[in-house]
Amino acid sequence: MPFAGGASALLAALLFVGQCCGRSVTSDARATLEADAPRAPGSREAYATLLYGDDFMLGVRVLGQSMRETNTDRDLVVLVTGNILPTSIETLMSDGWIVKRVDTVFNPAKGPHPGGFPQRFWAVYTKLSIFNLVEYDKVVYLDADTVMTKNSDVLFSCPGFCATMRHSERLNSGVMVVTPSKMLYDDMMSKIEEYPSYTGGDQGFLNAYFSDYMNARVFDPNDTSQAADAKMMRLPTSFNADVGLYVMNSNRWMIPKESIYIIHFTLATFKPWNWWTPWIIKETKVWLAFREHLPKDSLGYSHGMTPFQHFAQFWMVIIPLVAAAILVRRYLWGSGIGSAFRPFPSGPGSPKAGGSGVVARAMVPRQFTGLSIIVGFLSILLPLAVTFSIVPKHVYPLWGWILAYEWTLLMHYCLFGLYLNWCYRRGKASASPSSQVYKVSGLPNRPWRATLKGATAGTAALVMCPWLADILLLRSFVVKVILTIFVGNAATAILTHFYASLAVRWFACGKCEGYTKSNSLLP
């Protein structure tokens, strides 16, 4: 039909403009998209999750992939709120999700935190919208930081409200089974301003709302008949395996691994899509395996990659190497760094015979050592902060570590190198005929060899610090933390020595060169 063709063309144009502008789709276009979303014929049960920012987009996609690989035939529904890119909507639909736009339920700030809630929880109360999915008889909700390792359709047999009990006799809202009800949902909405939340989010509210939940019976997936008359039931740990407890138990599960249905990555800083997470959580490999199976997104990228991640894994790896080569060739080679790779000449009057070259003793300002140590560690901490801000956190772990080391070390040595150059020039400017130095004949020998030794030792210390426990095959989380702290302290001591000694050496070298030049001993 001409009208249908024109409508399709108009919709395509709207999506194209939305992509180019980087904004969310318009409400009309979004409504059309969602109306066209696939739904299993006669389906009255669904898995659901929440997406209120593109930061969790990759998590939602991997969760969907894990559920599809368990061969479930239930609907996959994603509740969307906030500013989600139109390309993300398209990708979710192509992945098989039913995209349902819902109004944002803003956090009422009833928690103990400054401002009432952690910033990342600004829209987490929107999760309560699952109770309003009245088009379904039963909904199993999963957070975007979970993955399903076995078919979990048996959860739809759990009656009423079901969740997993955690520490301190509190339920965890990362995996829930709910029976949608408009009356129940409206009652919840009327009480969110009234009930406190110990987490500052929906989980604290649900614990207050279902205050008698701790007395609920445990759901037995092998005997669903015993649950027929229950209003609430507790899910076994196997349906919400907390990776935090896994880490604290030395990267071992407290229940048989083969009995686990759903893994929940509960640690806020160590979500499975962050490249640094596998360093502390070995079970991230399960999540990464599902990521590998992701189909292409609406832009044609595989494995959940983005254009910036592709840029990072190629150009951001090459740029530091090229920059380092240019800096060495243009600025350092002409300053004599090549002498560090040549053996010292022997004989009277040679730099080797002269102990530390042209300088046996030089006076430096009293506060010089402390200043050098402070500058040295700032030249590490600042690059670390910059590195974590420029390296995409969703890149694969191997590339994340490569980028982190390359950019941190490049910026560190550039910054501290500039400081050593300042020390050298400061020493040269302070030289006078009365300077207390002993000279030898010939040109001064600049401390390049000591500088390279310091750089090598510092690099080795920084590289080894996080990995020694893995090299020694130590699995215990506590042992790993203790060993990392120990190696970190050793690295700090090594770096402290080199920061102080190299600054003094370069200051003294400049002072000696200035003295020699002022006395016309240089050609």
Secondary structure topology:
Blueprint: H1 2-21, H2 27-35, E1 45-51, H3 57-68, E2 75-80, H4 86-95, E3 98-101, E4 138-142, E5 146-148, E6 161-165, E7 171-178, H5 182-191, H6 202-209, E8 217-218, E9 232-235, E10 241-242, H7 243-248, E11 262-264, H8 284-292, H9 307-332, H10 368-390, H11 397-429, H12 448-464, H13 468-471, H14 477-518
Parallel strand pairs: 1-2, 1-4, 2-3, 6-9, 8-9, 10-11
Antiparallel strand pairs: 4-7, 5-11, 6-7
Helix pairs in contact: 9-11, 10-11, 10-14, 11-14, 12-14
Written description of the protein model:
Residues 1-22 form the signal peptide. The chain crosses the membrane at residues 312-332, 371-392, 398-420, 481-508. The radius of gyration is 31 Å and the shape is elongated. The longest helix has 42 residues, at 477-518. The strands form 2 sheets. The protein has an 8-stranded mixed sheet, with helices on both faces. Strands 5-11-10 form a 3-stranded mixed sheet. Mean pLDDT is 82; it is low at 1-38, 346-362 and 437-443. It is α/β, with parallel strands linked by helices and 523 residues long. It is 44% helix and 9% strand.
